[in-house]
Amino acid sequence: MLRSCFWLACVGFLTAASSVNAMGDWTDTAFPIKSHDFGTVAVASKTEFAFPIYNTTGRDMHIQTVRASCGCTTPILSSNYIPAGGQATLLARFNTPTFRGKKGATLTVVIDQPFYTEVLLKVDGYIRSDMVFHPGAIEMGKINQGEAETGATKLYYAGRNDWQVVDMRANHPWLVPSFQQVERGPKNATYELTVQVREDAPEGFFQDEVIIQTNDRSMPRVPLRISGTVVTALNISPQSIAFGTVRQGQQIIQRLVITGREPFAIDSIECEGWDMQFENAGIAKKIHVVTVKMTPTAAKGTQRLPIVIKTAGDGAVTAKAILTADVQVEQVAAR
After folding, report:
1. Which residues of 69-84 are buried (b: 16+ CB within 10 A; e: fewer)?
2. Cα 91 versus chain centre, distance
3. In the β-sheet with 240-247, what is the strand arrangement from edge to edge?
4. Low-confidence ranges of the chain (pLDDT < 70)
5. Is residue 8 domain-resident?
6. In 3-state terms, what secondary structure has residue 4?
7. Structural domain containing residue 147
8. Cα distance between residue 5 and residue 235, in whole Å
9. Quick check: is 38 in a domain?
10. Considering the entire predicted model, what is its pTM?
11. Does 150 map to a domain?
């Protein structure tokens, strides 16, 4: 009897330990980034970072709440409910208009489904009071691919007589920054900062930083946030399709809304390893509402694939949406 009790206690302990380890692995996968350093930023600059959240549990996830340890950071959750296989973001907004100096915060993400756990995310940064961006970021909005667009902001400085902007640098060749001094006083200066998004910018949403290099030896580099969405001739909604767990050979019906800048006819809808069936009238129009019957045929396991839509005619263009799913293959019992 004592041996049985001892054995059960050991099994219970090992099971609990295994569950804790599994939970740790799960949260590491669901929250691949758990800290971010904003570096040195200017007053009133739009300073944000989006922590990605991936639901890899196989069940629907519910985030009960998010707490911030400091008012210097505001957490903004894109969705409290995340379906199995889906994703969301937790935006950490650094409150640069109202805070100064070295600041940091811990964001506690409280999850109550499918398992209760708390995940800690951290942000840090230094808000310098002698520089102000107005507006606080360059937000380009929608940009047609193949057309160059330029955005601008102004930088106001108050402090040293000899302070200067000496350079601006971007992380991508299709972002072209430039600067020009427009005013200078005894202890202040104003610069106009512009960033051009070139014609060869890739499709999709971008959020990046342009670095302003100054002659300030103590804090020479200051980031300026730039964002926008490069759109193609076609726009697909939804852009991301998450099916969760499906069986190979199982047919799923999905409605797509496909919008173009000019009238177009659809030539094909394809996804590798999937059979894609839809009624095609061959009519050219700006908006198509298409019901697609999607069946995984050769696809199996975890899937993250592009659905490629091609238009008809000599000036054919393509657009892509993303399909995610966990395709299970039924096992045939051996006789």
Report:
1. eeebbebebeeeebeb
2. 9
3. 240-247, 318-328, 301-311, 266-270
4. 1-24, 146, 331-335
5. no
6. helix
7. 137-231
8. 63
9. yes
10. 0.57
11. yes
